[in-house]
């Protein structure tokens, strides 16, 4: 999205001078992760975060979800400084974390039940959604009876039912085989276009980042002081073939070089 386009859009997530480090129990040692970081993410944007292992990607999610709090600075959700962020954004962790003793319908209905809606009503509400998410006929199965791609779709459905306009997806497709992964990327694109949410997506796969996102945040230096952002020069709808354009191949090489540079130090 162009800078001019961003100005017209509503900010759904904002970091204002956020500083964060992990401390050990004795508070003697600390691992600084973010230092006075400022950034904004806009409504209906698709942002991808790439970066070497240990660069702080999941920590950013822990801060957004409220599992951690900044040492300094503020995190704003939909324009408001939110001290109590737990439960206010949809979050899909790396592992699907479906409850093995609950059926698919019961797993998907969990966020609705947590809003104190009666179980029967919650189950009724998720039934048509299961169909929409390609899970028709799976409602009474248990998670171990589903393929990896299907489990990810249940997990994604559950995250969208949090009711938030912000979805955080932490490497959702990393455990899938290459073919399933490609079809899940296309499926995610369709869902995102339908649902009109803002998505922040962590991946190690530069192709996946280029195919899915409007902007890519590259995590390198530690602590992170300035978020390095790259605009993806592709319109929508897009297809995987678009990644074969010379400008995209060049951008991919640049990103890989950057990541390699960061890993090697
Ligand atoms: N609870 C914790 N206490 C102390 N240090 C932590 C904690 N969680 C993460 N760290 C450290 O913070 C740094 C960033 O970790 P984080 O999990 O955010 O990285 P990441 O970029 O998500 O890595 P990966 O790609 O491997 O998932 C690492 O050096 C890690 O060891």
From TrEMBL:
GO molecular function: ATP binding; ATP hydrolysis activity
Keywords: ATP-binding, Nucleotide-binding, Transport
CDD domains linked to this entry: ABC_NrtD_SsuB_transporters
SMART domains recorded: AAA
Residues annotated as domain ABC transporter: 13-246
Superkingdom in the source lineage: Bacteria
Keyword Nucleus: no
PROSITE patterns: ABC_TRANSPORTER_1 (PS00211), ABC_TRANSPORTER_2 (PS50893)
Record InterPro entries: AAA+_ATPase, ABC_transporter-like_ATP-bd, ABC_transporter-like_CS, ABC_transporter_ATP-bind, P-loop_NTPase
PANTHER family: ABC TRANSPORTER ATP-BINDING PROTEIN (PTHR42788:SF2), TAURINE IMPORT ATP-BINDING PROTEIN-RELATED (PTHR42788)
Name by which UniProt lists this protein: ABC transporter ATP-binding protein
């Amino acid at each position: 999205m162009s800078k001019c386009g961003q100005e017209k859009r509503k900010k759904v997530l904002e970091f204002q001078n956020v500083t964060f480090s992990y401390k050990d129990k004795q508070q003697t040692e600390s691992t600084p992760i973010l230092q006075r970081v400022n950034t904004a993410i806009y409504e209906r944007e698709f942002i991808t975060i790439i970066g070497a292992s240990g660069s702080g990607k999941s920590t950013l999610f822990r801060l957004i979800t409220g599992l951690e709090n900044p040492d300094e600075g503020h995190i704003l959700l939909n324009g408001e400084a939110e001290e109590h962020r737990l439960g206010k954004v949809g979050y899909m962790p790396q592992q699907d974390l479906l409850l093995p003793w609950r059926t698919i319908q019961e797993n998907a209905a969990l966020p609705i039940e947590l809003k104190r809606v009666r179980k029967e009503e919650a189950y009724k509400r998720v039934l048509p959604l299961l169909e929409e998410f390609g899970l028709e006929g799976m409602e009474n199965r248990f998670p171990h009876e589903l393929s990896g791609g299907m489990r990810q779709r249940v997990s994604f459905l559950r995250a969208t039912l949090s009711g938030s306009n912000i979805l955080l997806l932490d490497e959702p497709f990393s455990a899938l085989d290459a073919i399933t992964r490609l079809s899940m990327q296309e499926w995610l694109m369709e869902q995102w276009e339908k649902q009109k949410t803002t998505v922040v997506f962590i991946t190690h796969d530069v192709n996946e980042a280029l195919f899915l996102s409007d902007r890519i945040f590259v995590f390198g230096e530690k602590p992170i002081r300035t978020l390095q952002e790259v605009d993806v020069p592709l319109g929508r709808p897009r297809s995987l073939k678009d990644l074969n354009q010379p400008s995209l191949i060049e951008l991919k090489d640049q990103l890989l070089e950057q990541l390699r540079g960061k890993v090697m130090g």
